[in-house]
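YM 10:42: Nicotinate phosphoribosyltransferase sequence, as discussed on the call
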Amino acid sequence: MSEEFDIVSPEAIREGRATDAYFDRTMEALEHAGKNPDVVAEVTANQFATGRWKLLAGLKDATALLEGRSVDVDALPEGQLFDGGPVMRIEGSYREFCRLETALLGFLSHPTGVATRALEARHAAPESTVLSFGSRHVHPSIGAMVERSALLGGLDGISNVAAGEVIGREAGGTMPHALMICFGRGNQEQAWQAFDAAVPEETPRIALTDTYSDEADEALRAAEAVDDLAGVRLDTTGSRRGDFRHIVREVRWTLDAHGHDDVDLFLSGGLTPTTLRELRDVADGFGVGSYVANADPLDFALDIVEVDGEPAAKRGKLTGMKSVYRTADGGHHIGLADRDGPEDAESLLEPLIRDGTVVREFDLDAAIDRAAADAERVGYEGVTAEE
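YM 10:58: structure's back
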């Protein structure tokens, strides 16, 4: 059996071999005909506004793919909200980037979907701690993409250790049910105390308290078994929850009644923005997994809109080079690039690559701040995939 995982290598991606086969056929036909037109191509999800904001992510990897190619590229900043129109424009000889389209769209589509879902979760519980717990739901090779996109959308922390090493962030986490089960039914105190004694001092003491018995009972037992317990976590399976809000309130009441009002209450397990909104007033924090990590990729397409300086686009696509703008009132506007934009509007497409040289720096913290500020600017209301 091969020791290799089923993963396309970075080298194959950079060389354009992670492509749909018809781009190979396209290159063969163009080379045979001696054609290599200068084109303008745009990456767009929707031609016009839809009323549903998306958060651009994946631009760092997309830039690395195009770096060194004889092209000029403009793009929205990483962490920019958008609603229709191009997020990227590529100008150059078509054969220079033809084979890269498949990978380029993948680099943008999937992270943008994840970041948008993270933004939805963030705005569902704006005053709460919201952590990314979704790595187990995706192929491990894209764990860093998921965690980076989740942070970009505003989540407060990540759980994947290797992903944290890639993106320069420390992963966090406490204990799974497996730890509790290893100590056996009735021995929950031993598990909590072993955890307390073993982990580094800076690790928060958060006890999982729904493994064998009533959640309120286990929460109280944990608070009395571990000195300076920071919090308890309920990960109760949906099939046993009943009225989950009532359970959470009962746990809070029980802890408070016994003098443990300083013990925080965290929730996880299949949470969505809807459940975050329902529970944000009775819990201190949440771990969101599948809702964010399992996000559908945004349906970006790359379309040629000009050939040798002349408008050219297929049916159903808006022809000609375009610009997108943010107006003072937070509006998102799309217009032809050779026309004046709205009065007092800011152009969002900024230089990214000039003749193969990257002219922009990437800073995750700056992108996170940009996303939060832009969400406020446009009046983002957190419409979710559930609605």
